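hi! just following up on the protien thing from before. the input was this:
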Amino acid sequence: MRRSAGFVIVLFAGWLLVPGNAARPDAGGRAVTTATRIAFDSGRDGDFEIYAMNADGGRQRNLTRHPGFDLSPTWSPDARKIAFVSDRKGNFEIYVMNGDGRGQRRLTRNAQTLDRLPAWSPDGSRIAFMRARGPCSTGSCKYNEIYVVNADGSRPRKLTSNADDGEAAWSPDGRRIAFRRDQDGAGEIYLMNADGSGMRRLTRNPALDFAPSWSPNGRTIAFTSGRDGNFDIYLMNADGSRQRNLTRSTFDESDPAWSPTGRRIAFTSTRRGAEEIYVMNADGSGQRNLTRHAGDDSDPDWSRAR
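and the predicted 3d structure came back as:
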């Protein structure tokens, strides 16, 4: 499950036979293998690290290998880089690294805030993230606001103000951002233009709705909801209509992430006790465990093939 503000402060692909892989010819007509991978954060090493694996769960490996907490990985659109969150300099900031874990560098620098939950724009030029600012207690910070920064760390600018907002997700065309807003004690899914204007509410439920994720065709938004007594993965149309439960579990399911084709959704589940990464078809069928590890694995994000 996506690490909450409370968590932050308290804790201050295989090859051709792998689903999602394909072969394409290079300039000389030779077959070149392309592969989709899934990045996730894992607590299996005693702290939290960023891992990546093939789309079938094979070849799981630690990319960050750094003391402290590395969380919330998200692939760049060209699958060459991963943005993530780390507290290695004392407070949580946004970092970027190459897809193989090399070249780790800090993107945001603000000792007075906590920066979390990065999300690349579809063209790879910008990264949206949640910035928490004080006053803060062991439970949460007073304000969580959505910011956008250029992919090189320049020109950070605020999109929402004086609210509890987070978990930004860009629409595939880059024109809109879905996000979670906590209003009147319940989190709801909202939509706004990429410049912060035109804000409107998509869900209306007394339970917590959070972690929106756009389908690749931009017609559907997956999200997490607690409206049935536990957390499940829901789908709705991009205008908020036709909200329906996809997982229908008695355990907690969260953090949906679409495959590049839109045929599958990766998510976090507690059905075996610890948090683990599962995958299912886009209609909710064919649910299976990918990580199978006693340590907590969560926050999956699917790369595009290249």
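Confidence is low (pLDDT under 50) at residues 4-34.
The first strand starts at residue 22 and ends at 25.
cheers
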